[in-house]
Amino acid sequence: MTVTATMEPGEEAPGRLSRKKTNALFGIVLLGMLLAALDQAIVGTALPTIVGDLGGAGHLSWVITS
User: Fold this and answer.
1) pLDDT (tens digit, 9 = 90+) per residue, 8-64?
2) What are the percentages of helix, strand and coil residues in the chain, rounded to 5?
3) Do the beta carbons of residue 66 and residue 50 sit within 8 Å?
4) CA angle, 45 as apex, 43 and 48 as ends, to 5°?
5) Of the candidates 58, 14, 64, which has an alpha carbon nearest to the alpha carbon of residue 39?
6) How far apart are CA 58 and CA 45, in angstroms?
């Protein structure tokens, strides 16, 4: 027995994202990457002061992890 599926005009194929959803997903990923880069720039700039306040480079990994 063979089953054939017909698609209505304008209907998306199963497993495919629409153009709108693809663009939204791409924008979300780009926003996440921007925030990660911004966070790294802020921590990198403030790192000497933070390490100095904590009392040494032994706590450096905790600053980067947090």
Assistant:
1) 776 666 778 899 999 999 999 999 999 999 988 888 888 888 778 877 777 677 767
2) 70, 0, 30
3) no
4) 90
5) 64
6) 18
Query: What is the pLDDT confidence band of residue 7, given thresholds at 50, 70 and 90?
Result: low
Rounded to an integer, what distance in angstroms lies between the CA atom of residue 55 and that of residue 8?
67
Supply 50's token pair. Answer: 């933070």
Q: What is the domain partition of the chain in residue ranges?
A: 19-65
Q: How far apart are CA 35 and CA 51, in angstroms?
A: 23
Q: For residue 35, what are the CA distances in angstroms to 8, 11, 56?
A: 41, 35, 28
CA distances (Å), 34 to each of 7, 13, 65, in order? 39, 32, 18
